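Form 7-S
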Amino acid sequence: MHQPVVTRHFTDGQFGQLHYRMAGKVSSKPSIVCLHMVPKSSRSYQHILPLLAQDRLVIAIDYPGYGESAAPFDESQVNIETYAHAVWQVLKHLGVTYVDFVGYHTGCMVSVRAAHLYPQWVNKVINIAAPVFLESEVQTFCDMYAPIPLDEQGTRFRIMWERVIQHRGPGMTLQMCADSMAENLRAGEAYEWGHMAAFHHAAQYIEDIKTLPHRLFVMNLNDDMRVQSERVDAHLKNGFRKDYFQWSTGFLDAFAQDVATEWLAFFDDKTLS
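Output:
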């Protein structure tokens, strides 16, 4: 079967242009909208987009300040709500009004918040992990991901690389690690704004999943959000968690076909559990 081509586009947003990747065509099925973790971008989904797009439109969007999207003017303008509105700016530009969401780490929060903004336009939601932070954990994570100042010794880059290697999952090659590292650098001095936005959104995310009217499927990987994800069961009202401990960081590149099969089974109402 012919594999759809991934194309790249821009549209106007609140702070300048918003960048997105797209494959496939609008059909009777909801369009799939893929939302990245930070400090990455829509590039995280580059291999899986065409696999999802055989019979529907699939879109991956860069939040303001990440990938190729223009950055907010200062950190006070950065929050999960801002990212969620940016998602709908792209979708409204495309005239897309019926979607399935996929969110990864920070993207989990963005996807669920976006679903609450226009619930009538959303079908289902997948969260890769569920960042359910305890109130006592939030400051620890803020401290852990505080911006690392630039210096001539390259301390920021050494620590970034060490973290990429530390979280490296099965099938993640060194080239994939290098690509991940490169994505970290694209946001410049604002690279940690998104993490701070996510940590400060922790309590709201829990409320959002409790009240989400859409079916929610949480994929729990063997990664750095495994403990937090296992807490989601207490808050799910219309969804379920499934563990994928054979997968971790880099799985979207290393096992794209298998992942696409899981997602489409959920979106197309086939049995998963």
